[in-house]
Specification:
alpha+beta; eight-stranded mixed sheet; 6 helices; 28% helix
Length: 209
């Protein structure tokens, strides 16, 4: 089962705080995938993130981690009264284990081997930061992989695609051939869930349609 929610972080952004035409959106990320998703929505925005410590805290749940990091990324950007900042963080989760970006071929092949023939969760936390405070949202998606042979995993690593991807795969690229089923948000797996993101933007006074 897949669930998504929008746990609020006080204080709430007022949708009537400023005219929509005066709001300036900044994406606190250099991810081309997140930029493509925002651009596809017809939004105008600036980009650029600040490195934050992405280490998991002792005993921290995966959903709490992605929400914390999304907020930290957003808060790392300087704002003013007209600027709103969008931050996001994505994690691939199998059981209690969080898969980050592989450091080398062996780690990538190991990750893909553990995901092979099994279902895992992809969590993406989104945070919207303004002078009025921060609001957050969480997207949870279940992804099931078919069986992946060791030779396939190695060939995939050699393609270069999984090098900078959490869980060592990109659903929107060649890694999509491993996906047997998905329940939840495709865009959330890519890195920026459209539903949760547009809800946050609308609540801030920046509508899409």
């Amino acid at each position: 089962m897949v669930s998504s929610g929008r746990p609020s972080v006080s204080p709430q952004i007022s949708s009537a705080s400023r005219p929509v035409s005066e709001l300036v959106l900044h994406l606190a990320s250099s991810s081309p995938r997140r930029q493509e998703i925002l651009a596809a929505l017809g939004l105008t925005f600036s980009t650029g993130g600040v490195d934050v410590d992405e280490m998991r805290l002792d005993g921290e749940a995966a959903d709490a981690m992605v929400l914390r990091l999304a907020e930290a990324k957003a808060r790392a950007i300087e704002i003013d009264e007209s600027r709103i900042v969008l931050g996001a963080d994505t994690a691939v989760v199998l059981g209690e284990d969080i898969f980050g970006k592989p450091t080398d071929c062996d780690e990538a092949v190991e990750m893909l081997g553990r995901l092979s023939g099994r279902s895992h969760r992809v969590l993406t936390g989104v945070a919207l930061y303004s002078g009025q405070g921060v609001r957050t949202a969480l997207s949870t998606t279940e992804v099931r992989f078919r069986e992946i042979g060791a030779d396939e995993a190695l060939a995939y690593w050699q393609s270069g695609e999984p090098c900078d991807k959490a869980g060592a795969y990109a659903i929107q690229g060649r890694g999509g051939v491993f996906v047997e089923a998905i329940s939840g948000s495709y865009s959330g797996v890519v890195g920026l869930p459209v539903f949760e993101t547009t809800q946050l933007l609308r609540d801030a006074g920046l509508g899409i349609l």
